[in-house]
From TrEMBL, chain A:
Keywords: Membrane, Transmembrane, Transmembrane helix. Residues 1-70 are annotated as: Disordered. PANTHER family: INTEGRAL MEMBRANE PROTEIN-RELATED (PTHR38441), MEMBRANE PROTEIN (PTHR38441:SF1). The chain crosses the membrane at residues 100-118, 130-156. Pfam families: DUF485. This is DUF485 domain-containing protein.
TrEMBL record, chain B:
It comes from Streptomyces adustus. GO terms for molecular function: acetate transmembrane transporter activity; symporter activity. The chain crosses the membrane at residues 6-27, 52-73, 79-100, 121-139, 159-177, 189-209, 247-269, 281-306, 337-363, 384-407, 413-434, 446-467, 487-505. CDD domains: SLC5sbd_u4. Gene3D superfamilies: Sodium/glucose cotransporter (1.20.1730.10). This is Cation acetate symporter. PANTHER family: CATION_ACETATE SYMPORTER ACTP, SODIUM/PROLINE SYMPORTER-RELATED.
Amino acid sequence: MQSSNGHPRGGEGGPESPDENHERIAPDHAGAPTVLPYDDPWYDELASGWGESDAGRLPAGSVPQARQEREDGARAMADVYLEVQRSAAFQEVRSRYRRFVVPAVAAFFAWYVAYVVTATTAPGFMAQPVAGAVNVAMLAGLGQFLTTFLLTWAYARHARLRRDRAALELRWDTQELTRGLGGGRS
Amino acid sequence: MTGDHQTLALLLFSVVIAVTLGITTWVSRNRHGSAEEFYAGGRLFSPMENGFAIAGDYMSAASFLGISGLIALFGYDGLLYSVGFLVAWLLVLFLVAELVRNCGRFTLADVVAARMKERPVRIASGTSSVTVSVLYLVAQMVGAGSLVALLLGRTGAAAQAWTVIGVGALMVIYVSLGGMRATTWIQIVKAVLLLGGTVVLTVLVLMRFHGDFDQLLLTAAERSGHGSAFLAPGLKYGGDWTARLDFISLGLALVLGTAGLPHILSRFYTVPTARAARRSVVWSIGLIGGFYLMTIVLGFGAAAIVGPEAVRTSNAAGNTAVPLLALDLGGGTDSTWGTVLFAIVAAIAFATILAVVAGITLASSASVAHDLYASLRRRRAEPYSEVAVARTAAVGIGALAIGLGLLARDLNVAFLVGLAFAVAASANLPVLLYSLFWRGFTTRGAVWAVYGGLVPALALVVLSPVVSGSPESLFPDVDFQYFPLQNPGLVSIPLGFVAGWLGTVTSAEPPDEAKHAEIEVRSLTGAGAV
């Protein structure tokens, strides 16, 4: 597991701490078989050889006991994801993502629609000369290119500095918790 | 055009075919035939490689020749197109690339099916993905036919038909033998060729005007005969309100459609992590943005150097503006360099078409095998291997595209591309965004969102002036035109979103909180990503 490097792990010590959760759930299911096939596309990644040997996917539920264990595993898995979703660390990652993305999408979409609508409904305004052969339309068009590059750079920087590390830690934490539950992801 | 051009161009075409077939053989020399390898190329491409491949998938011959041709003929209105094609990538970068990489395995339907009842949503998204791919494929095939015939100076119907058949056969070979790995390398080679050629031509144009962009614009405006109106919007889409609304509809489809194109979505699965997916989109935005900026120079350069009249004489849609420009920049019709540059540009355009059709064929065969076949086959039947089905599907889709490409030979390529984008934005985007971001979304909502966008989009096209009721339409003799716009996006995209919402609020089944938690956690953290 990666070290936390000072990002706010708000869940620590709280009732929803992933680590506590791990203690609570894992012992019950640690021994569950790990190679059972699932209908859900996420769960069959380790059902080895899918592709050339799809026959490896036995008809699910042919053994009643296996089905029972599978359902237990799925329920435990669902609990893990609900716990992680409610944890403060995840809420922080999600709100950082949304705080950047929602205004950015609104801004570029409004700017683009305004550009297209103006170009089609007010060509006279767009034709006003600014300097030499360059007019408002040309500036607005090149402005669209420029804002696209700037927003791309800003998003990549924001994600790298503000989100990546916390997301990676949550990924390992979550995978720790789900190990041995159903999918056999390890 | 003289025989020299054609001989050299044919020679270079053969080199392109030989190199791409060589790549296919080389990368498939030790394949294992796993689905991971066939659909996703083993997921081990670097962000830079994937960025080039995405750019290669996206920059079709329609943009290289079509947009610069539109600029050469109509000035600023051609530029409006390229802005839409580029800005669309912000939506992909912000809302789609990383989350889809984290949640899915091979196709769009994977993301939706992860939250919903698998069978109905897989059938729905699989159907819409195949529809979008086939439309886009037909556009490229039609473009290939007319383009190659034009570049070789053979405008006869037979040459066009054989080109469509040849391109179709080649793409089936690349895809069914080489899978994603061969397709990706072909895209990369093609992107490098295309960007290299564009850079050379741009530098030559700017050198002609001593680096003075202002002078270039003034000369273009003067030679166009429209004066300063050439540098402002309105020459092509200015007309009545129907034409203006049509352009707004197209603009909406372009900016929202990219995020729903199956062959773009499947590219994010070829890199190992969401972070790599993000970095590949950043690469591709840089490459695509630079490319469209250069096509602006080439378009105005063609207007200034070749002149719109000469361009229009060669091809009414302007598709030959760039090859003519290359001929002129090299020194004219009878010079060696002019011949060489012309042949190189023609070969690059040919490579572009081959690469783009290969990417789309792969994505649609993945949808057929991974979504439709897996859901529709009889439960008791002995399952064929999914990859074998996908290889067969590639052959079937190739045959379908050849057939439709021959039928739709006379349709406008730009219109077909705009239509594919409109269908992608109406049928694929709403279900994708709802699945990723809406807590209360249900299976019924997902199915309604897909069909609620797909059916109106296709129906409105059938009722549009493209199909009937005007001299240029597909069936000029009958008139069942009830919808005035050529592009359905303005109506069908909102309908897709409304249908998804309506299906969700009317469904009896409560939304699955746990599945939503799972998709949210997975999409943002990458936990358990394949």
